[in-house]
Specification:
elongated; alpha+beta; single chain; 2 helices; 3-stranded antiparallel beta sheet
């Protein structure tokens, strides 16, 4: 039996946090990039209207050490890495032993989501 598997030419993935705190991944596939972007926009609008928030499962690119010198993506606490004031992801910042999350504002200042 000759079975041929094909991958969709375009795919879109998002990870989000449900209002109940569940981290979920949604994948959309389509044969056309423009149609996929339209579907993705509809999906994002629905997720936002349902109270879902974007989630960066790798802590916005930050890394941590596992004690033997190897680094791996640090899993962020969703409530700390997302600014509910401006509805956006925040980057983890470190100075010495202090760690916090913040994001830049248009005026050049920084917001810590509080």
């Amino acid at each position: 039996m000759d079975t041929q598997f094909t991958e969709a030419p375009a795919s879109w993935n998002t990870t989000h946090i449900t209002p109940d705190g569940w981290v979920c991944t949604l994948t959309l596939r389509n044969g056309n990039g423009i149609e996929l972007l339209n579907r993705a926009t509809t999906a994002m609008n629905h997720l936002q209207a349902s109270g879902c928030k974007p989630h960066s499962k790798y802590g916005n690119g930050s890394t941590s050490s596992n004690g033997n010198g190897n680094s791996h993506p640090a899993l962020a606490h969703p409530e700390e890495s997302f600014c509910i004031i401006h509805n956006c992801s925040m980057m983890q910042k470190t100075r010495g032993n202090q760690h916090w999350y913040s994001h830049a504002l248009d005026d050049g200042s920084w917001c810590k989501g509080k």
